[in-house]
Amino acid sequence: MSLLKLKRKIDWAVFDGEWYKQQYHSVLSFFELSQDGEIEEFYKTKGRDLKHSPNPFFDESWYLQRYSDVRELVASGEYHSGFDHYVRVGNLSHSPHWLFDEEYYRRLYLDVSPEILRENNIRNGYDHYLNQGSRQLNSPSVFFDPSLFISENPDFKIDIEEGPYIALLRSVPEPAVYQKRMSWYFDPDWYVKTYPDVCEDGVLWQGPLHHYLTNDTPLKYNPNQYFSEDFYLSCYVDIAGAVQNGGFRNGYEHFAKYGQYELRQPEPELSLRVYAENTKVKTEVAKYAKSSFFVYYVMNNGIIDQSGYTEEEIESISKDVYQRMSRLRLPLLLRSKIDFSCENPEVSVIIVAYNNFAMTMTTLASLRDNYDGRIQVILVDSGSSDEVKHIERYVNGLDIIRTVGNVGFLAGCNAALEKVKADYVLYLNNDLELMPLALETALARFVKEPEAGAVGAKIIRTNGLLQEAGCIIWQRGAASGYLRDQLPDVPEANYVRSVDFCSGAFLLVRTNILKELGGFDADYAPAYFEDTDLCVRINKMGFDVVYDPGVTVIHYEYGTSGSSGSNQLMLINQQRFIEKNSDYIEQRLPRHDGQLLYARSAYPSLKRVLFIEDYLPFRHLGSGFTRSNDIITVLTNCLGCHVTVYPVFRNTGEGDDVYSGFPDRAEIMWNKGIDDLTDFLKSRPGYYDAIWVARTHNAERVAPVLADVAGVMPGCKVILDTEAVAAGREQQKAALRGEQAQHSLDEMLRQEFRSAGVAQKFVAVNERDAATLRRLGMQDVTVLGHLQSPDRSAPGYDARKNLLFVGAVHDKDSPNLDSLIWFVTQVLPLLDGRLPDDVTFDVCGFCGADIDLAALLPHPRVRVLGRVDALAPVYNAHRVFVAPTRFAGGIPYKIHEAAAHGLPIVASDILREQVGWQDGTDMLACDHMNASSFAEAIVKLYTTSDLWGEIQHNALERIARENQPQAYINAIEKIIMM
Description:
By secondary structure, this protein is an alpha/beta fold. About 40% of the residues lie in helices and about 15% in strands. Helix 35 links the parallel strand 20 and strand 21. Helix 21 packs across helix 22.
């Protein structure tokens, strides 16, 4: 929006005598006041105390109710009134009226700095709105839609120079207007019917919306039938905490500002995420730039208009667009002269082309752009009549085989096999495009998994839906593409699996296997089931056929399927396939929807484990999430379990990390949360052998869910991994703050583990916590610490410099933040003059969005590095690791990690006790309240090379003894094999 300099007075900052006389007529009459001067004087001497508003644009009562800190300042006499506060200091950060939201308006319409506003003589968002935005029909908040207001009140008089918002606020009184809908976010009719008591005190309210936004019990009322305050706050405990702390007036304020765009669920029957995945809904919402899926749902009462194009029509259109785009690219590709000339190719690509010159060129260009390495392209021109027959004019380095007539895909591929020079052969259709890194990723799979014989792709059709995510062979020989017609980003399509077969549209195979098998079986000529048969024969040789979602292609899916002749040929070759592979087919599952989850993988897993955590446990999150990540990795990569990772809180900001942050054979349910868990488990009856619940507090969250699904989860065992016993940490925190604990340690423990009965097996991070669990009556308890390997090649004393702290700071109550502030304010100043001035204290780790470490840690030695994905170079560059934690539970991962990298540690006595190491031998430990002893230990370790070397050696030995990878793997195997 362009900014016009304002020349009018600031309407919200002045006293409006005429409006005041109308608004408070009865009060002024009682005092027999009518003159302008005496009315304004009355406001200043008495009206402010009566919480009168000075003009229609500022609501004094609401302002004091909404901002409790302002209310306290007015009570103390620092400001005459809420209006006085707003005019003097609050206007840039606070909202003046229940129908105007400063933050919302600035974000939506004035995304500029305060300096730019000042340059244009604009005081704040409200100033702009009253002078420009109202007449331009901008929305001042989610609760007032000017266009909707006008349509609901066609007879309401509106000055075109002012707009509906100003007209509404000046209209004193207009009770009928306030009874009508002003926004899709609030339903006044439903509200009055649901809460009839609102009408009993009608004199206090201007209408239902006014009541909803200004009542004293905001958690008691819902704004419409599509939002439940109780449900929302019970599902999203992070929001409940923010509401309790005054960050939001209620859950709906959060939902309207943020939750709806994060696709959080507003009430039990409305899954916004599912609704938003509907193609028609996406299309319709995209038409309204300022709308949302929730608003669209409300406007249409949840009904999706399915009129318009059918799925078949959509796919036909998308294919037409794809062909047109291929033709549009063609002149550019012809001029670019694609070149595949090379010696000693790394991969040989076989393409069979029958006409479709433009698409063939698109495929070749996509292949060349996709991989910089040496590629041999063997192109079989299967009797083309278009420019394919002259393709060597436009592409260099092709090995071309030309046939008389269209010999088909199978015969063409087998003829090309004779020319293959590389160790890997890629069968590639001439009607597809490779997405970034497709070929590189496929080749890397063979290095990562030597048992892989073939690698297939995630194939997406031109309509944006899946053709397949790996393929299934059923017991009677039928074959199907897994997840056909689903969205490509669904979690089920995005983890690596060994499958029955993958389509020959993109199939990378080891050359030695292909030559041993003789390529495709010629009995399937001219087409159908040849790629299925090849993959089965590869499986029979003891090699895996691997579906890798990192290998993604867009496929036109060109062909003649659907004609009577092709259907007959398909049936004949299916029967031939059954006869040739009866031994393999007999071991497959019968075709049934209930078997789909089991059939999607070619081989059964050791165990199927559902791993539940607060959030997706990315390693950079620290705070126990690194340990959870290690457990998932061991279960998946070392023990061969199928692991489904399931967060309590839906992932909202880590989409780029979801699949790179975990083992690629783990299924990551990034689009789910605790509110989806019941339906999720019911959709997978009997599927999981074990549910691993990370963190004790999650036992309480999943307990009612597990009770509800008990009938469909027979034999499924629940493992409760406590990660850390919290009660002791809370007592430490209370003592640190000089607070008296309200409950004894035993009472806190009983409260903490009140839902532990949901589990049959328990995991503790150390022996001390394990003893606590056993004392509480838990029998099957296993200790599982941290996974580390000592780096014997770690740099020595002279190669290192500076102090290091590694730890996540998720919120202002974080023990890491407490320790950092204490260390920087109390310890760092004691190092001045004792360590060189250029020695820095580097702080590394994830930081919550509302935490500004740079502002909280102002000492000149401090350098805030933030999140660092590769920590090894950071550890190897520093001389001393500092861990001044003053309250904690479990075992600090950072201690073991630093020690494993050969970085000696100065830590609090609390952490030393947790790891059970020796002060002066394995680390230096200090009283967590004694800043001078901490400083002394740091100086001693930093400046004494002999001591430094001794501590490094001893700590590495500790890691070697106590954190052995094989022992860690064995412990997890023991836990899971119950």
